[in-house]
Structures are given as C-alpha cells and as structure tokens.
Model the fold of this input.
Amino acid sequence: MPSGKTIDADCGEYLIDVVENAGVPVQQHCGNVAVCGWCRMVVLQGAEHLSAPERPELLLMERELFTPNERASCQAQVLGDVIVTTPYW
Ligand code: FES
Done:
C-alpha cells in the first residue's frame, strides 16, 4: 500500500526482495544485514504470516525504536499474505 499492487512471493522469500523484484523501491543502507533499519516497513495486515524476528532484527528493532507493527523487510520472510507500507511510498 498505497500502490495497491499485489505481488506473488515464494514462501520464505525475504520481504525486501519480494517488493524490490516487483519494481517498488525500498530504502536500505547496510546490505540487508539488520544494521541500518532503513528497510523498515509497517505491516498493515498479516503480521502472523511473516517469520518471527530473530536476534539481529530484535536488537535492531530495539535500537531503532521500531513500533510494534514495524519489521525490517530484509529480515522478515514471507510465509503468507501480508499488506505492508512505508512512509515514503
Ligand atoms: S537493509 Fe539495513 S536493516 Fe534492513
């Protein structure tokens, strides 16, 4: 959102890759290693269909003050239907 694009993803694919492969730009600065936090996305629906955050992402979320509905798209793997947005789309 707000593009309204529906993008097919393989189960386990990283959220950032799914979005970028569809031609939607995603900010990132650390090469997808859970350091910068620039790739954060707001999960509007389907948070339960993303992989659980692991230690590197949990540390990033705490350090960068993620809100409870934000995930690092370079760390979250898509397991089912999700709806996401960013402030810059
Ligand atoms: S790209 Fe840097 S934390 Fe995701």
About this structure: The chain has a mean pLDDT of 96. Residues 26 and 83 are 15 Å apart (CA to CA). The domain at 15-85 is CATH 3.10.20.30 (Ubiquitin-like (UB roll)).
